[in-house]
Amino acid sequence: MEKELDNIFREILYLDDNYSINDSLAPGDIVEWDSLSHMNLLYEISNRYNISISFKDLKGIKNWGELKKYVIKKTTNDS
Amino acid sequence: MLSKKQRMIANIFLLKGNDISGKKFLKFILSEYYGIYEFNYYYNKFGKPYINNLIFFNYSTTKDYIVLVVSTDEVGIDIELCSRLFPNNLINYIYNESDNYQKDNYNLLKKWVEKESYLKYLGTGINKKMSDVIIDNDINKLFYTDGKILLNCFSNRKINKKIVCYKINDNSDFIIDDTVNI
């Protein structure tokens, strides 16, 4: 599922295949990950996995790795 | 306006490590414009940063642009490229069903920068759907476009502020609003 999420990340942010995605990436680290992309990313993830992402939960999430963990946990808990 | 030397420094400064950092740009502007080299960040309860409790700022980046507003009171700013395609799946995120809205890309982006800059002005972060956000009409709003970028800035009325928009790698910068020197 992590790889799938990385693919979604790459797709939404229009990153080419050569771009190396690492878990420490945070919004603003790359120009493509601005507020509009961030919201689009959350929306896409919530639709693809049929989960509800809480704004309150997002406050503690600092980077892509933490967001992935949150989503994976959510899909496990909500299923 | 930044001098040629300042723009060169800004380019190096901003592109170091291949990231674009508003805080780096802020540090640069404060030193180059105001001679402020040392300062501390303070944060409100939602994590919005301030400087020395006297200087308020906010920044936004998109592709090759970074825009920074520095002020003596609360501010919020957001920028987008006019050429950006607004994701269709976010239309219902920013608009209520009851809202009358124009579905063309320009107006969708315009609404986005308006609401995003307002949330940044409030400093509460995104804590609800944008469609539920109602903008206070008493708050000063500045909207700017040159056909390449859309920019929206909210601030308390009658405050000193400076908005600097910088196009990275292009050696161009411009002041959009410079009410009074702070």
The shape of chain A is globular
Query: Quick check: average pLDDT of chain B?
Result: 79
In order across it, which strands form the biggest sheet of chain B?
1-2-3-4-8-9
Q: How much of the residues of chain A is beta strand, in percent?
A: under 5%
Instruction: Provide a count of the helices of chain B.
Output: 4
The assigned structural class of chain B equals: alpha+beta
Total strand segments of chain A: 0
What distance separates the N and C termini of chain A?
Answer: 15 Å
Ranges of chain A with pLDDT <50 over ≥5 residues?
Answer: none
What is the rounded distance between the termini of chain B?
A: 15 Å
Task: Evaluate the radius of gyration of chain A.
Answer: 12 Å
Overall description:
The complex is a heterodimer of chains A (79) and B (182). Chain A is mainly alpha-helical and 79 residues long. In chain A, 56% of the residues lie in helices and 0% in strands. Chain A contains four helices and no strands. Chain A has helices at residues 2-12, 35-48, 55-58, 64-78. In chain A, helix 1 (2-12) crosses helix 2. Chain A starts with a helix and ends with a helix. Chain B has 182 residues and is α+β, with helices and mostly antiparallel strands. Chain B is 26% helix and 30% strand. In chain B, a hairpin with a 3-residue loop joins strand 6 and strand 7. Chain B is globular, with a radius of gyration of 16 Å. The chains are: A mainly alpha (79), B alpha+beta (182).
TL;DR of this structure?
The complex is a heterodimer of chains A (79) and B (182). With 79 residues, chain A is an all-alpha fold.
Give a quick set of tags describing it:
heterodimer; A: 79 residues; mainly alpha; 4 helices; 56% helix; B: 182 residues; alpha+beta; six-stranded antiparallel beta sheet; three-stranded antiparallel beta sheet
